[in-house]
Amino acid sequence: MKKELLIYFIIFVVLTITIHFSELITHPFEHILNLSKSGAYGLGAIHPIIFTTIVYVIVLIPRFVVKLFRFKKWFDFFNRNKKRVRRKLLTLF
To answer: Hey, how many other C-beta atoms are within 10 angstroms of the C-beta on 52?
Structure first.
Protein backbone atom coordinates (compact mmCIF):
# COMPACT_ATOMS: atom_id res chain seq x y z
CA MET A 1 0.00 0.00 0.00
CA LYS A 2 2.85 2.38 0.86
CA LYS A 3 4.45 1.68 -2.51
CA GLU A 4 1.25 2.56 -4.37
CA LEU A 5 0.81 5.78 -2.39
CA LEU A 6 4.42 6.70 -3.15
CA ILE A 7 3.85 6.08 -6.87
CA TYR A 8 0.67 8.18 -6.75
CA PHE A 9 2.47 11.01 -4.95
CA ILE A 10 5.40 10.92 -7.38
CA ILE A 11 3.01 11.13 -10.34
CA PHE A 12 1.27 14.06 -8.63
CA VAL A 13 4.53 15.94 -8.10
CA VAL A 14 5.84 15.25 -11.62
CA LEU A 15 2.58 16.38 -13.21
CA THR A 16 2.50 19.51 -11.06
CA ILE A 17 6.05 20.47 -11.93
CA THR A 18 5.73 19.77 -15.65
CA ILE A 19 2.36 21.44 -16.18
CA HIS A 20 2.78 24.46 -13.87
CA PHE A 21 6.53 25.00 -14.08
CA SER A 22 6.46 28.69 -15.03
CA GLU A 23 3.85 29.53 -12.38
CA LEU A 24 5.81 27.66 -9.71
CA ILE A 25 8.96 29.60 -10.59
CA THR A 26 7.45 33.08 -10.77
CA HIS A 27 4.67 33.10 -8.15
CA PRO A 28 4.25 29.72 -6.37
CA PHE A 29 2.25 30.84 -3.31
CA GLU A 30 -0.27 32.85 -5.30
CA HIS A 31 -0.73 29.92 -7.65
CA ILE A 32 -1.37 27.48 -4.79
CA LEU A 33 -3.74 29.90 -3.04
CA ASN A 34 -5.74 30.39 -6.25
CA LEU A 35 -6.33 26.65 -6.59
CA SER A 36 -9.84 27.00 -5.14
CA LYS A 37 -10.71 29.40 -7.96
CA SER A 38 -9.20 27.32 -10.74
CA GLY A 39 -11.35 26.26 -13.63
CA ALA A 40 -9.39 23.54 -15.38
CA TYR A 41 -11.93 21.93 -17.73
CA GLY A 42 -14.69 22.80 -15.28
CA LEU A 43 -13.26 20.53 -12.59
CA GLY A 44 -12.28 23.27 -10.18
CA ALA A 45 -9.99 22.63 -7.24
CA ILE A 46 -10.08 18.84 -7.55
CA HIS A 47 -8.54 18.79 -11.04
CA PRO A 48 -5.06 17.79 -9.78
CA ILE A 49 -6.49 14.70 -8.08
CA ILE A 50 -8.53 13.71 -11.12
CA PHE A 51 -5.62 14.12 -13.56
CA THR A 52 -3.26 12.27 -11.23
CA THR A 53 -5.75 9.41 -10.90
CA ILE A 54 -6.10 9.16 -14.68
CA VAL A 55 -2.32 8.97 -15.17
CA TYR A 56 -2.04 6.49 -12.26
CA VAL A 57 -4.59 4.18 -13.90
CA ILE A 58 -2.69 4.44 -17.20
CA VAL A 59 0.50 3.42 -15.36
CA LEU A 60 -1.32 0.73 -13.36
CA ILE A 61 -2.70 -1.19 -16.35
CA PRO A 62 0.71 -2.32 -17.76
CA ARG A 63 1.94 -3.13 -14.24
CA PHE A 64 -1.12 -5.31 -13.68
CA VAL A 65 -0.64 -7.12 -17.01
CA VAL A 66 3.02 -7.86 -16.20
CA LYS A 67 2.08 -9.19 -12.76
CA LEU A 68 -0.64 -11.33 -14.31
CA PHE A 69 1.81 -12.96 -16.72
CA ARG A 70 4.31 -13.56 -13.91
CA PHE A 71 1.60 -15.18 -11.82
CA LYS A 72 0.48 -17.28 -14.79
CA LYS A 73 4.06 -18.49 -15.30
CA TRP A 74 4.30 -19.51 -11.65
CA PHE A 75 0.89 -21.17 -11.82
CA ASP A 76 1.88 -23.16 -14.93
CA PHE A 77 5.09 -24.26 -13.21
CA PHE A 78 3.09 -25.41 -10.20
CA ASN A 79 0.64 -27.39 -12.35
CA ARG A 80 3.41 -29.10 -14.33
CA ASN A 81 5.38 -30.06 -11.24
CA LYS A 82 2.61 -30.81 -8.77
CA LYS A 83 4.14 -33.97 -7.33
CA ARG A 84 7.57 -32.44 -6.88
CA VAL A 85 6.16 -29.29 -5.28
CA ARG A 86 3.91 -31.35 -3.00
CA ARG A 87 6.90 -33.44 -1.86
CA LYS A 88 8.92 -30.33 -1.14
CA LEU A 89 6.06 -28.81 0.82
CA LEU A 90 5.64 -32.01 2.85
CA THR A 91 9.34 -32.07 3.70
CA LEU A 92 9.09 -28.55 5.04
CA PHE A 93 6.49 -29.54 7.62
So the answer is: 19
